[in-house]
Amino acid sequence: MIAKSKQVMLLWLEGFLEACSLHRVVILCHRSRKLLLRTGQCFLLNGLIFLGSLGVFKWFVNPTLQWILPDPCAPVTSQGFCSYNGSYAFLRGGLLQLFYVFWFYPLYMLSFILSNIWYNDVAKYGFEAIEKSDLSSTETFRQCEVPESVIMTNAERPSGLGGVMIGIGVQVYSILLLTFFFMEVYLVGVIPYIGKILNFLLLSWMYAYYCYEYKWNFLEIPLEKRLDFFESNWAFFAGFGSPCVLAIFFLSPLVSGALMAILFPLFVLTATGSGPEKSIGAPRSTWKCAGLLRLPIFYVAETLSMLALSIFRLESLQHEKTG
Q1: DSSP characters for 38-75?
Q2: Is the pLDDT of residue 166 over 80?
Q3: How far out from the chain centre does Cα 14 lie?
Q4: How far apart are CA 309 and CA 312, in angstroms?
Q5: Which residues cross the membrane (predicted)?
Q6: Are 42 and 294 a contacting pair, CB within 8 Å?
Q7: Which 3 state secondary structure label does DSSP give 95?
């Protein structure tokens, strides 16, 4: 039991240190101007514009409205003046809500859409930069060469229209899986006493999976291989996702969203520059997590995804029969 606990802690620490290897970001941005530009755009939109807007609102707009339209009813205020102050508070609250509706929420949606487009570019340019570079032997991307077993698995997929349809089906299933897992993360957070701890752990796994998914897509690693490797190396990926969550866990939703939008491409690049999946095609007994049980992290999400797909298929068949 002690040996297992030590193994878990060492794997968690290894993942945590991998996520904090931000020097890779500097090296890769130095090697690729396209990568530097995309990363800079993420910082400009989410850091300067979005976080800057939140700062202006907190330290300038809100205090100014507080001064112009003060809080109601100090103890020594006359009753007539108190009624005016109540109107001021209502008007100030309305102006603040307008500020959110017409500035923060549209800016948040713009940031969300553009950032998700740019993240894919960041991962692609980082992937290309690593292929061209000669990083140190411990970090070289040759660690991430696609294992032969993965190549064989991809070769088994039919070509032509059949292969395209299978690819679309896998993408749909992946989207459903991550959507249900996100819902699970949110719902777990409301459990009394242990909810916050479980929420932190599931968020760590979720961000770790998101960070590595970009590279796994480029390497064409099949979804079942990803999930098997991820759930088997649960301690490593819990450690990798922890710095992502620590940076935002105690902040308000808007601030945490803006900060994560800044930090996420950095963690994507550190994931792109690491290579834990170099052993994905090797025998399980050779993995660093050998001896640890596979943790069914995505069990609930997989079950719900299969249920949703079966319901959709049943409705399609019924529609065909009635048609």
Answers
A1: HHHHHIIIIIIIIIHHHHHIIIIIHHHHHHHSPPS--T
A2: no
A3: 20
A4: 5
A5: 43-61, 98-119, 161-187, 193-212, 233-251, 257-275, 296-314
A6: no
A7: helix
